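Exam revision sheet. Question 4 asks you to relate a sequence to its structure. Input first:
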Amino acid sequence: MTEASSLAELLRPVIKDERVLAAIASVPRERFVPAVERDRAYENVALPIACGQTISQPLVVARMLELLELRDSDRVLDVGTGSGYHAALLSLLAGEVWTIERHDELGAKAERTIRGLGIENVSFTIGDGSRGLPEHAPFDAINVAAATGPSVPKTLQDQLAPAGRLVAPVGVDAQRLTLIKRAGRRLEETRLESVRFVPLIVRDR
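Answer key, structure tokens:
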């Protein structure tokens, strides 16, 4: 059994979506962490990467993917590329993925890593993730891998397709994983478990 497979089995008591577990088992997490952290790549913890950012705890990543209820045909926006690990997993669960990162260094490294794994259905952008990518909207799912502050930016909510789902850590001092679903003209918001993410930082106004 590979280390990635062992990680998926570790998460199985909490994560019920078999497609998510299969994706976790398929992606080599050690490729997305700095060399000095590679001996810890399969621990269920967040790890530091460049630019003061982190690669999120595997359990939280898997939980966010599960909440998005992804389908093979979905068009997905990933806000906060970071290491690229989240985008790599999304690529196995959806049809097309657009990922946006404010740090050029992180975006470039994530693209090299993902292309090195033979993944071709992820498109990379450097920019302000809080603005989303309106030129590619609407999205069936939006994954926000940074804390949005007191609420999810309206610009991101507006980019949800009919029946679209968005998951993000919301809050200032205390963050909660939050699921937003579009139901007709309404948006239904559900606050879930406590999490801790680095903040979503606006690149420019």
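Marking note for examiners. The first strand starts at residue 47 and ends at 48.
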